[in-house]
Amino acid sequence: xxxxxxxxxxxxxxxxxxxxxxxxxxxxxxxxxxxxxxxxxxxxxxxxxxxxxxxxxxxxxxxxxxxxxxxxxxxxxxxxxxxxxxxxxxxxxxxxxxxxxxxxxxxxxxxxxxxxxxxxxxxxxxxxxxxxxxxxxxxxxxxxxxxxxxxxxxxxxxxxx
Length: 161
What we know:
By secondary structure, the protein is α/β, with parallel strands linked by helices. It is built from 3 helices and 9 strands.
C-alpha cells in the first residue's frame, strides 16, 4: 500500500497553484486555502484528501478554474487516491484582506499596482507611497475599487474585503 501524503505535501502542492488574475501569486498566499483533511479511512475512500477553499467573494468567476488546478496538483501527489476540493461557502470563514500574506501584498503592489485596504485609514500608493483617494468604489471586480494617488497621479486598484 502506498503511504498517504502528509498535510505538508498537500499544502506544498496547493501552493503551486496561482490565482488566474495574479500570475505568480499562490492561492495559499492569497489566503484561499482554508483546510486540508487527510482521511486514512472513514466515510470516503482510504487515502482521501479533502481540500477546503475560501472564495474572495461568492461570485468569483475563477473559482472553478482554481478548484480544477488544486485538484490536478493534489492528484499528482503519490498516495492520493481520490482528492476532493470544495469551496467553503457557508461552512467556513469569510475571506478578508487580512488573509493575504506579506508576500502576496508586496507582489500585488510591485507587479500589478494593486494596493490592499486594511482598516479605515488612507491607502498608500504602491508606486510612490503617497495617499490615494477613491475615484470609484467599483473596480474591475467586486473585491476591488479604483483610487488615484494624490502625489504621482497613478491610477491604483485597491483590494478590499
